[in-house]
Amino acid sequence: MTDSELDVVYTRLCKTMTELGEPNTPLFLARFALLAIERIGNAQTALGLIDAAHEDLAAPDSH
Amino acid sequence: MSVEFKPYPFEAKRYAARIPELDNGRETQRHAVTIAGGGPVGFAIALGLARHGVRSVLIEADDSVCYGSRAICISRRSLEIIERLGALDGFLAKGLPWTGGRSYYRADEVLHFTMPQDENQKLPPMVNLAQYHIEQFLLDAAQAHADLIDIRWCTKVTAVQEDGRGATLNLSTPQGDYEAQTDWLVAADGGRSTIREALGLKLAGTSYEGRYVIVDILLDSARPTERLAYFDPASNPGSTVLVHKQPDNVWRIDYQLRDDEDAELAIKPENVIPRVQSLLDMMGETAPWSPIWITIYKANALTLERYNHGRVLFAGDAAHLVPIFGVRGANSGIDDADNLAWKLAFVVKGLATDTLLDTYSDERVYAAHENLSYGTKSTEFMAPPSFAFDLMRSAVLSLALRHPGLRSLINPRQTSAIAYSASPLNATSPDAFADGPTPGAVLPECPLTLVGPGTSRAGHLTDLVEPRFTAFWFSEIGELPPALTALEATLASRAVPFAVVPLASNRPADPTRPGGWDHTGRLFPMYGATPRTLYLARPDGHVLGRWHGDADALAASVLAAIDHTLRA
User: Fold this and answer.
1) Which residue in B79, B148, B232, B492 has the most C-beta neighbors within 10 A?
2) Nearest-5° angle of CA B563, CA B493, CA B543?
3) B403: nearest CA in chain A?
């Protein structure tokens, strides 16, 4: 994937989420993640990506 | 903490209005070309016309070059154009050259980008200097052509009437009002163009809600010149901050406002100064500083549908507004000027039909859409227009440090020359090229030894672009076939500015005319050229056509391409 192809995909993702609105976005991203996992087709890779996406993200304060 | 404002370290000379000879309130002399607007674009058009020997009157509402923080980055392509306009020296002497920048997310550097820069280049990819300097150096060059450029300061356009043969302008000055007539009117009168308004034309496109405060400050710092972008910095959490160094210790700081902030309050010094102070603290800048100028900015991505309307031609911000992110505003205006000047000069001199000006609109509207598409992408990142762009930006920034493959999404997509790949002027060719610029593209730079009768010196290919059509003839020792010298004679008899410039792979023994020797051996492969290759360049340095082969056939192709252009 070239830089400009990545750009196109990124912008399409943003625009789709904008269209769906904020409340629908978590479900949309969850569906996209599942489709990507299914297409990746490799548990080890998918588990690695889950860890990478999780890294540096703190759980919300519980109050 | 300092709160005292200081002036820019630049004193503009003031000029008074001048009333020409009038008859019943109308200027006695009708002009071939009148340019409304004495900004970088207006001056570049006047200088471009002067290079072709065409006179113009330039109308400017103010009494001096501009004040405040406007364009600050001039691209390599603009510098090439400015060099042809005879104003480059000041830009290089005063401007701060730079080649790249850094983006930070919180405390981490997540992108270090560089713009194309290699040993083939003559000019830096970008220089920073204030717009008052840009205008001053162009004004200096214009004043050196006082016989061809008649500048009317303190003169406002109050009404304009286009009648198919030209335009009548109502002009107002502190010394009185008058009417002036012109065959052609160039509207280079900026984003709030009076002429666009008077003609009832509207810009169309997208206006963004995200707001940036722009602050110029005076600060003595040895920090190198590069583009600095801070996303969510500790000093201004949640904000995005851009920092650019300018000459004379002026620093330009742009920071994004939160959606819930009131613009009026946000630009009050008591609200601006603590934010700047906290940014400078974070950057480790400890020297005393003073604010110079504060303003607010919202990104627009707008253009007119066409840039020629009868005898009125639009250029620069009067024709299109591109977002500041990517520095395409003044740079695209200077490209407009370069495209328009030679075409208008050819039409005024009777060498081309008016339809050549349609191609000005075709090519520059196309370029505006390209610039808007890059500018829009930059703006979507720098001033996210929805929660989605904001969310995705946080994702990119927080992953970029460990996942370099995502860093290109942070790249500011700086301005670059636009190729007119679909221009109706481009000549088709059956000849295959392994490399080199296609018709519509600009000439890539390459070092050369510039040779001529009794001379030889180091130079570059773009040094050979003059206000004419140029046929670059590639050969072994610079010999010219009779068909090409005959073509020169034919076009000279029609007063069409044209020259054949030989480019040789071996040192020419006894050059009879100015040309180049490819002493590095890089030029021929860069252009996919072999002996008997010909590139035809327009006066603005864009390629019109390219061919290989028999000189008689080449001469016929060149003549056809030029004829097609002049009767486009």
Assistant:
1) B79
2) 35
3) A52
